[in-house]
Amino acid sequence: IPVDPFDLVVFGGTGDLARRKILPALFRRFCAGQMPETARIIGAARSDMSDASYTQMVADALREFSPGAQSHADRLRDFLGVISYVRIDAMGEAGWAELTQKITSVDRVEAYYFSVAPSLFGPLAERLQGHGLADRNARIVVEKPFGRDLETAKALNATLARYFDETQIYRIDHYLGKETVQNLMAVRFGNMLFEPLWNSQFVDHIQITVAETVGVGGRGEYYDRAGAMRDMVQNHLMQLLCLIAMEPPARFDPDAVRDEKLKVIRALEPVEPHHIVRGQYNADPDDADTYPDYRTAVGNPRSRTESFVALKTHIANWRWAGTPFYLRTGKRMRERSSEISIVFKETPHSIFAEDAGRHRNVLSIKLQPNEGITLGVTIKEPGPGGMRLIDVPLDMTFAEALGPDGGETVDAYERLIMDVIRGNQTLFMRGDEVEAAWDWTDPIIQGWTDRGDVPKPYDSLSDGPDASAQLLVRDKREWRKI
Ligand code: BG6
Fold it and tell me: What are the residue boundaries of the Glucose-6-phosphate dehydrogenase NAD-binding domain, all occurrences included (predicted)?
C-alpha cells in the first residue's frame, strides 16, 4: 500500500548512514511501489554541491549498498528524479531560505531526518521552527546515540520538546524494525500456546545474545567513548528484553506498547557488580594487521572501554520474580548471531528411566542471520531401542516455511522510514523510555569508573572472556551456542 506523498529532508545527507542505509531503504520502497513518485527527497549538508553532483553521489551509493540497483535501471532513473540538494548550515542561516522554498505544500507530510551528531539536534530543531517548518505535519527522526547518560538524554529531550511535540519525534532503534522482532510480538500475542507459560513458574531463564564478528572498524573514536554498554545494551538489548518481558498491551498501538515497555525498564533490578563481565578483544593471531586488538583499533593503548559485556539481571514484578535474564553482546565474536532464547523449566517429574535423558523446551527467536523461530520439543528417539528421549526442533525458519517468494524481506530502515511517513510511532522509542534505560545503565557504568574496572581480554572470534561462561556456570546453566 503506497504511503501518502511526502517531503523528506535528510540532514547529513552526504554522510555514511544516509549512503548506507537511508537512501538504499528509500530506493527499495520506491521500487516496491510504496514510495509515491510525487514524494521528494532533499539531501541537506554542509558541502557545496549541485543537485546533479548530489544525485550522482546517491546513484553511486545505491550501486554500492543496494545490490541489484543496476538491474532496476528505469526505476533508478525515476528515483534519482525525486532527489535534490540544499547546502545548509545547521548552526547559521545559510541555506534555510532555499530549504523553506522547497517545502511549500500544505497537506504533505514533512519529515526531517537528523542523521547528524547529537550536538546539532538542538540547532536544527530551533531553525526548523524559526522558519515555520515545525508545523503539525512535520516529524523529526533522530538516531542514536540519544545522549550518553541520563543527564544528557534529559537535556536532549528537553531541547526537542521546546520545538516539537512528543508525537512528532521518532527516535530510531533499528532493532525494533527487524522482521523477527515484530514476529516475536505476533508469536507471543497471536497464539494461545505460549502466553500462559510466559512467566517465572514455567520459564527457567531467558538469554539474549547479540554477537558480531566485526570489530570497531573505522568508528574507533565514537566507540571508545561509548563501549558495548552504551552502544548496544542501553538500546538494542534493552528493547528486546522489553518486548519479551512486557505485559500484553491492550492494543497494538504506540502508547499502549510503549507504556508496557516502560514498566519493564522501571522494574529492572540494579545489576550487582559480580553479575557483569566486561571484555576487550585481542588481535587475530593470524592477521593482526587487518584485525588488530581493541586498543590498537581505537588508537588508545590504555583504553578501559568494553567491546563485550555479559550480565545477569532480574525484573522485580509478579510475572518474572526469580527468573534471571542473561544478556550478552560483543564485537569480534565467533559468529554473527542475534538470538533470544526462552529456556523453559524441566518437567516437574520424569516418568521415564533415569538414563532416558531429559530436555528442556527452548523457544529461540533468531534475529539474524537466517531469521526464524525454533521450538525444541522432546520426543522419543525413533527406532527399536527402548524409551530414549531426544530434543528435536520445531522449525519455523521463515525462508523454509514461506518459500523463496513467500515473504518479502524488508530491511529495518525501510520499515521504520515508512512508519515515520505513516505516522506510526509503535516501533520508536518514547522519551521517557530512553531516560528510564539510562537510569538503569548509568550506575553500572559509574560503578566501573569508581572501581577502576579493567575489561578482561578475550580471543578474537571467540565466545568472549571465560568469566562470561562462568556467570552462567555458577547458576548451573550455560550460554546457548553462538
Ligand atoms: C549499531 C551499533 O547500533 O548496531 C553498532 O552502533 C552495531 O556498533 C550495529 O554494529 C549492529 O546492527 P545490526 O543490525 O548489524 O545487528
Answer: 9-183
C-alpha 65 to ligand 1 mean position (Å): 16
Q: 217 and 76 in one domain?
A: no
Q: Are residues 126 and 217 in the same domain?
A: no
Q: What gap in Å lies between CA 236 and CA 340, rounded to an integer?
A: 12
H or E segment and range at residue 121: helix 121-130
The verdict on 227 and 90 lying in the same domain is: no
- Same domain, yes or no: 345 and 401: yes
Torsions phi, psi for 111 (to 5 deg): -120, 135
Q: Which amino acid residue places its CA nearest to atom 9 of ligand 1?
A: 232
Q: Which ipTM did the prediction report?
A: 0.98
The 10 Å Cβ neighbour count of residue 5 is 16
Here the cell at position 481 is 551456542
**Beta carbons of 312 and 444 less than 8 angstroms apart:** no
Angle at 203 between CA 174 and CA 318, to 5 degrees: 85
Last residue of a domain, one of 143, 166, 196: 143
Mark which of 119, 143, 167 sits at the end of a domain: 143
- How would residue 55 be classed by pLDDT, with cut points 50, 70 and 90? very high
Nearest CA to ligand 1 atom 4: 232
Say if residues 245 and 160 touch (Cβ distance below 8 Å).
no
Residue-number span of the structural domain to which 122 is assigned: 6-143
Q: What is the pTM of this model?
A: 0.95
143 lines ligand 1 (CB under 6 A): no
| CB 122, CB 161: distance < 8 Å | no
pLDDT of 401? 62
If phi > 0 it is left, if psi is from -120 to 50 it is alpha, else beta; for residue 248 that is beta
> Does 154 reside within a domain?
no
Residue linked to cell 548530489: 54
**What is the spatial distance between Cα 7 and Cα 18, in angstroms, rounded to a whole number?**
16
Q: Is position 212 annotated in a ligand binding site? A: yes
Q: Which of 361, 318, 375, 374 is nearest to 201 (CA)?
A: 318
Q: Quick check: is 72 catalytic?
A: no
Range 423-446 average pLDDT:
98
